[in-house]
């Protein structure tokens, strides 16, 4: 089913199948909900699609914790993790990310970098997902 861009600054959620799968009752399935979009998101509605829906792209970002910095060397968007624990031979692992954030980066800063591409993907008719996970300080 092709994606139709809305004429106004709102997104319509009207798929009966999706509403039914969320456990809504029959009378609610026929209603159309509107979610108003902030004016700043209007540019995403008017932006041209840059990639086809058949070629999804996974982007990964990393926010390092202060404890990570003891065993990590960062080079651009890559970092090398080294294990220096006693009884374990030194091992090195290299990981590459689209973006690496310092330990003092806030969730707002991370979202300001990640969400524009995510929203563009969503508004161009493709599925998009933002997952934020990690240990919580006590």
From TrEMBL:
GO terms for biological process: microtubule-based movement. Residues 1-34 are annotated as: Disordered. Keywords: ATP-binding, Nucleotide-binding. Transmembrane segments: none annotated. Residues 57-138 form the Kinesin motor domain. The keyword Nucleotide-binding applies. This is Kinesin motor domain-containing protein.
């Amino acid at each position: 089913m092709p994606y139709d861009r809305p004429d106004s600054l709102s997104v319509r959620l009207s798929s009966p199948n999706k509403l039914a799968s969320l456990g809504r009752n029959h009378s609610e399935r026929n209603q159309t909900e509107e979610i108003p979009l902030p004016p700043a998101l209007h540019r995403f509605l008017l932006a041209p699609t840059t990639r086809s829906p058949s070629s999804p792209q996974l982007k990964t970002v990393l926010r390092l914790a202060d404890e990570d910095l003891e065993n990590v060397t960062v080079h651009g968007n890559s970092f090398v993790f080294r294990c220096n624990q006693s009884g374990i031979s030194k091992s090195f692992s290299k990981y590459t990310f689209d973006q690496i954030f310092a330990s003092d980066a806030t969730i707002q800063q991370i979202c300001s970098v990640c969400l524009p591409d995510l929203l563009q993907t969503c508004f161009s008719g493709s599925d998009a997902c933002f997952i934020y996970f990690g240990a919580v300080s006590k």
